[in-house]
Amino acid sequence: MQHLDVRIHDNVATVLIDRPEKHGALSPGLLFDLNEALGDVHQEKRARAVVLSSRGDHFCSGVDLQVFQQIADLPESERMQQWFEYWRAVSETCEKMLRFPKPIIAAVDGAAIGAGFALMLASDLCVASKRATFAADAARRGLVGGVTTALLSFRIGAAAAARLTLAGENIDAEEAQRLNLLCQSPVASDQVWVAASQWAARCSEGPAEAVQASKRLPNESVGEALLTQISAAAADSASACTTESAAEGVSAFLEKRKPSWP
Predict the structure, then answer these.
(1) What CATH number is given to the structural domain containing 88?
(2) DSSP string, 94-148
(3) Is residue 169 one of the residues assigned to a domain?
(4) Which residues fall in a coiled-coil region (predicted)?
Protein backbone atom coordinates (compact mmCIF):
# COMPACT_ATOMS: atom_id res chain seq x y z
CA MET A 1 0.00 0.00 0.00
CA GLN A 2 1.30 3.44 -0.92
CA HIS A 3 0.24 5.29 2.23
CA LEU A 4 0.15 2.57 4.89
CA ASP A 5 2.45 0.02 6.47
CA VAL A 6 0.72 -3.02 7.99
CA ARG A 7 2.58 -5.39 10.28
CA ILE A 8 1.56 -8.28 12.52
CA HIS A 9 3.45 -9.15 15.71
CA ASP A 10 2.12 -12.06 17.76
CA ASN A 11 -1.65 -11.44 17.77
CA VAL A 12 -1.57 -7.67 17.27
CA ALA A 13 -1.71 -5.92 13.89
CA THR A 14 -0.16 -2.46 13.56
CA VAL A 15 -1.60 -0.18 10.88
CA LEU A 16 0.87 2.67 10.37
CA ILE A 17 -0.12 5.80 8.48
CA ASP A 18 2.90 6.39 6.26
CA ARG A 19 2.65 9.95 4.92
CA PRO A 20 5.06 11.90 7.14
CA GLU A 21 5.77 14.58 4.53
CA LYS A 22 2.09 15.63 4.79
CA HIS A 23 1.80 14.98 8.54
CA GLY A 24 -0.54 12.07 7.79
CA ALA A 25 -3.12 14.23 5.97
CA LEU A 26 -6.04 12.17 4.70
CA SER A 27 -5.77 12.07 0.93
CA PRO A 28 -8.31 9.96 -1.01
CA GLY A 29 -5.54 7.41 -1.57
CA LEU A 30 -4.78 7.15 2.13
CA LEU A 31 -8.46 6.70 2.99
CA PHE A 32 -8.73 3.98 0.34
CA ASP A 33 -5.64 2.22 1.71
CA LEU A 34 -6.95 2.41 5.27
CA ASN A 35 -10.23 0.77 4.29
CA GLU A 36 -8.33 -1.93 2.39
CA ALA A 37 -6.04 -2.53 5.37
CA LEU A 38 -8.95 -2.90 7.77
CA GLY A 39 -10.49 -5.44 5.42
CA ASP A 40 -7.23 -7.40 5.26
CA VAL A 41 -6.74 -7.36 9.03
CA HIS A 42 -10.36 -8.44 9.51
CA GLN A 43 -9.56 -11.60 7.52
CA GLU A 44 -6.22 -12.19 9.24
CA LYS A 45 -6.89 -14.81 11.90
CA ARG A 46 -3.63 -14.15 13.74
CA ALA A 47 -4.65 -10.55 14.48
CA ARG A 48 -6.90 -10.27 17.53
CA ALA A 49 -6.53 -6.48 17.95
CA VAL A 50 -5.22 -3.49 15.98
CA VAL A 51 -2.91 -0.59 16.85
CA LEU A 52 -3.45 2.46 14.63
CA SER A 53 -0.44 4.77 14.60
CA SER A 54 1.55 7.01 12.26
CA ARG A 55 5.09 7.53 11.04
CA GLY A 56 6.53 11.01 11.49
CA ASP A 57 6.06 13.89 13.90
CA HIS A 58 2.24 13.81 13.95
CA PHE A 59 -0.58 11.28 14.11
CA CYS A 60 -2.82 12.86 11.46
CA SER A 61 -3.29 16.50 10.45
CA GLY A 62 -6.83 15.86 9.17
CA VAL A 63 -8.26 16.51 5.72
CA ASP A 64 -5.82 17.16 2.88
CA LEU A 65 -6.47 20.83 2.10
CA GLN A 66 -4.41 20.63 -1.07
CA VAL A 67 -6.94 18.10 -2.35
CA PHE A 68 -9.69 20.56 -1.39
CA GLN A 69 -7.94 23.27 -3.39
CA GLN A 70 -7.73 20.95 -6.40
CA ILE A 71 -11.46 20.24 -6.12
CA ALA A 72 -12.19 23.97 -5.87
CA ASP A 73 -10.42 24.45 -9.22
CA LEU A 74 -12.75 21.98 -10.97
CA PRO A 75 -15.77 23.14 -12.99
CA GLU A 76 -18.64 24.09 -10.70
CA SER A 77 -20.76 21.19 -11.94
CA GLU A 78 -18.19 18.69 -10.63
CA ARG A 79 -17.19 20.20 -7.29
CA MET A 80 -20.08 19.15 -5.08
CA GLN A 81 -19.86 15.50 -6.12
CA GLN A 82 -16.11 15.42 -5.49
CA TRP A 83 -16.45 17.02 -2.05
CA PHE A 84 -19.23 14.60 -1.17
CA GLU A 85 -17.15 11.62 -2.30
CA TYR A 86 -14.26 12.81 -0.14
CA TRP A 87 -16.35 13.33 2.99
CA ARG A 88 -18.23 10.09 2.42
CA ALA A 89 -14.86 8.30 2.40
CA VAL A 90 -14.03 9.89 5.77
CA SER A 91 -17.40 8.94 7.29
CA GLU A 92 -17.29 5.41 5.89
CA THR A 93 -13.80 4.88 7.27
CA CYS A 94 -14.90 5.94 10.77
CA GLU A 95 -18.04 3.81 10.55
CA LYS A 96 -15.95 0.83 9.45
CA MET A 97 -13.70 1.33 12.47
CA LEU A 98 -16.69 1.46 14.82
CA ARG A 99 -18.16 -1.71 13.29
CA PHE A 100 -14.78 -3.46 13.06
CA PRO A 101 -15.01 -6.73 15.04
CA LYS A 102 -11.59 -6.41 16.67
CA PRO A 103 -10.49 -3.77 19.20
CA ILE A 104 -8.65 -0.78 17.70
CA ILE A 105 -6.21 1.15 19.88
CA ALA A 106 -5.01 4.52 18.59
CA ALA A 107 -1.38 5.36 19.43
CA VAL A 108 -1.17 9.14 19.11
CA ASP A 109 2.12 11.02 19.04
CA GLY A 110 2.00 14.64 17.95
CA ALA A 111 -1.13 16.27 16.57
CA ALA A 112 -4.50 14.66 15.82
CA ILE A 113 -6.49 17.37 14.07
CA GLY A 114 -9.99 17.46 12.59
CA ALA A 115 -10.64 14.28 10.63
CA GLY A 116 -7.43 12.90 12.15
CA PHE A 117 -9.00 13.47 15.56
CA ALA A 118 -12.04 11.56 14.22
CA LEU A 119 -9.85 8.52 13.48
CA MET A 120 -8.69 8.55 17.09
CA LEU A 121 -12.29 8.92 18.32
CA ALA A 122 -13.47 6.06 16.11
CA SER A 123 -10.90 3.81 17.80
CA ASP A 124 -11.97 1.93 20.91
CA LEU A 125 -9.08 3.08 23.10
CA CYS A 126 -6.38 5.71 22.82
CA VAL A 127 -2.86 5.98 24.19
CA ALA A 128 -1.09 9.32 23.68
CA SER A 129 2.36 10.76 24.17
CA LYS A 130 3.05 13.70 26.44
CA ARG A 131 3.47 15.90 23.36
CA ALA A 132 0.20 14.81 21.72
CA THR A 133 -2.41 17.47 20.95
CA PHE A 134 -6.01 17.24 19.78
CA ALA A 135 -8.15 19.77 17.92
CA ALA A 136 -11.52 19.94 16.13
CA ASP A 137 -10.80 23.16 14.28
CA ALA A 138 -12.85 22.83 11.07
CA ALA A 139 -14.96 25.91 11.84
CA ARG A 140 -11.82 28.03 12.03
CA ARG A 141 -11.10 27.00 8.43
CA GLY A 142 -14.61 27.82 7.23
CA LEU A 143 -15.44 24.10 7.13
CA VAL A 144 -17.76 21.76 9.03
CA GLY A 145 -16.26 18.66 10.66
CA GLY A 146 -19.49 16.76 11.08
CA VAL A 147 -17.93 13.34 11.65
CA THR A 148 -15.59 14.63 14.36
CA THR A 149 -18.42 16.50 16.07
CA ALA A 150 -20.66 13.43 16.12
CA LEU A 151 -17.90 11.24 17.55
CA LEU A 152 -16.94 13.84 20.17
CA SER A 153 -20.56 14.12 21.32
CA PHE A 154 -20.74 10.33 21.61
CA ARG A 155 -17.49 10.01 23.52
CA ILE A 156 -17.61 12.98 25.92
CA GLY A 157 -21.07 14.58 25.62
CA ALA A 158 -22.51 17.54 23.74
CA ALA A 159 -21.32 20.27 26.12
CA ALA A 160 -17.66 19.26 25.98
CA ALA A 161 -17.93 18.66 22.23
CA ALA A 162 -19.33 22.17 21.73
CA ARG A 163 -16.39 23.65 23.63
CA LEU A 164 -13.91 21.92 21.35
CA THR A 165 -15.68 22.36 18.01
CA LEU A 166 -16.98 25.92 18.36
CA ALA A 167 -13.80 27.42 19.80
CA GLY A 168 -11.46 25.12 17.88
CA GLU A 169 -9.52 24.65 21.10
CA ASN A 170 -6.25 22.76 20.91
CA ILE A 171 -5.97 20.51 23.98
CA ASP A 172 -2.94 18.62 25.25
CA ALA A 173 -2.76 14.99 26.33
CA GLU A 174 -3.36 15.78 30.01
CA GLU A 175 -6.61 17.59 29.19
CA ALA A 176 -7.60 14.75 26.86
CA GLN A 177 -7.12 12.34 29.73
CA ARG A 178 -9.22 14.55 32.02
CA LEU A 179 -12.00 14.38 29.43
CA ASN A 180 -11.71 10.56 29.46
CA LEU A 181 -10.46 10.42 25.88
CA LEU A 182 -7.36 8.44 26.90
CA CYS A 183 -7.22 5.04 28.57
CA GLN A 184 -4.10 5.85 30.61
CA SER A 185 -1.74 8.67 31.53
CA PRO A 186 0.35 10.14 28.69
CA VAL A 187 3.67 8.42 28.03
CA ALA A 188 6.96 9.32 26.37
CA SER A 189 6.90 9.38 22.56
CA ASP A 190 9.04 6.26 22.27
CA GLN A 191 6.62 4.35 24.51
CA VAL A 192 3.35 5.13 22.70
CA TRP A 193 3.36 2.06 20.45
CA VAL A 194 4.52 -0.15 23.32
CA ALA A 195 1.71 1.04 25.59
CA ALA A 196 -0.88 0.69 22.84
CA SER A 197 0.34 -2.83 22.05
CA GLN A 198 0.03 -3.78 25.71
CA TRP A 199 -3.60 -2.64 25.70
CA ALA A 200 -4.16 -4.55 22.45
CA ALA A 201 -2.70 -7.68 24.03
CA ARG A 202 -4.94 -7.21 27.06
CA CYS A 203 -7.99 -6.91 24.83
CA SER A 204 -6.96 -10.13 23.10
CA GLU A 205 -6.97 -12.25 26.25
CA GLY A 206 -10.71 -12.92 26.15
CA PRO A 207 -12.45 -15.12 23.56
CA ALA A 208 -13.00 -13.36 20.24
CA GLU A 209 -16.79 -13.71 20.35
CA ALA A 210 -17.08 -12.04 23.76
CA VAL A 211 -14.70 -9.24 22.82
CA GLN A 212 -16.57 -8.61 19.58
CA ALA A 213 -19.93 -8.47 21.34
CA SER A 214 -18.54 -6.18 24.05
CA LYS A 215 -17.29 -3.76 21.40
CA ARG A 216 -20.54 -3.86 19.44
CA LEU A 217 -22.71 -3.03 22.46
CA PRO A 218 -21.60 0.61 22.99
CA ASN A 219 -20.82 1.38 19.34
CA GLU A 220 -23.98 0.00 17.73
CA SER A 221 -26.56 -0.54 20.46
CA VAL A 222 -25.97 2.38 22.83
CA GLY A 223 -24.66 4.59 20.02
CA GLU A 224 -27.25 3.62 17.39
CA ALA A 225 -27.95 7.24 16.48
CA LEU A 226 -24.20 7.84 16.05
CA LEU A 227 -24.01 5.77 12.88
CA THR A 228 -26.87 7.76 11.35
CA GLN A 229 -25.20 11.02 12.32
CA ILE A 230 -21.87 9.96 10.80
CA SER A 231 -23.56 9.04 7.52
CA ALA A 232 -25.43 12.36 7.38
CA ALA A 233 -22.26 14.30 8.27
CA ALA A 234 -20.73 13.69 4.83
CA ALA A 235 -23.47 15.71 3.13
CA ASP A 236 -23.28 18.52 5.70
CA SER A 237 -19.50 18.78 5.40
CA ALA A 238 -19.63 18.67 1.59
CA SER A 239 -22.23 21.47 1.49
CA ALA A 240 -20.04 23.63 3.72
CA CYS A 241 -17.18 23.27 1.22
CA THR A 242 -19.20 25.18 -1.40
CA THR A 243 -19.23 28.42 0.60
CA GLU A 244 -17.02 31.47 0.15
CA SER A 245 -15.86 31.06 3.74
CA ALA A 246 -14.55 27.58 3.01
CA ALA A 247 -12.70 28.80 -0.08
CA GLU A 248 -11.11 31.62 1.93
CA GLY A 249 -10.26 29.39 4.87
CA VAL A 250 -8.52 26.77 2.72
CA SER A 251 -6.64 29.41 0.68
CA ALA A 252 -5.51 31.24 3.81
CA PHE A 253 -4.18 28.03 5.35
CA LEU A 254 -2.28 27.02 2.22
CA GLU A 255 -0.91 30.55 1.81
CA LYS A 256 -0.01 30.69 5.52
CA ARG A 257 -1.93 33.90 6.22
CA LYS A 258 -4.80 35.01 8.41
CA PRO A 259 -8.18 34.52 6.69
CA SER A 260 -10.30 37.48 5.66
CA TRP A 261 -13.83 36.18 6.05
CA PRO A 262 -16.50 37.36 3.58
Answers:
(1) 3.90.226.10
(2) HHHHHH-SS-EEEEE-SEEETHHHHHHHHSSEEEEBTT-EEE--GGGGT---HHH
(3) yes
(4) none
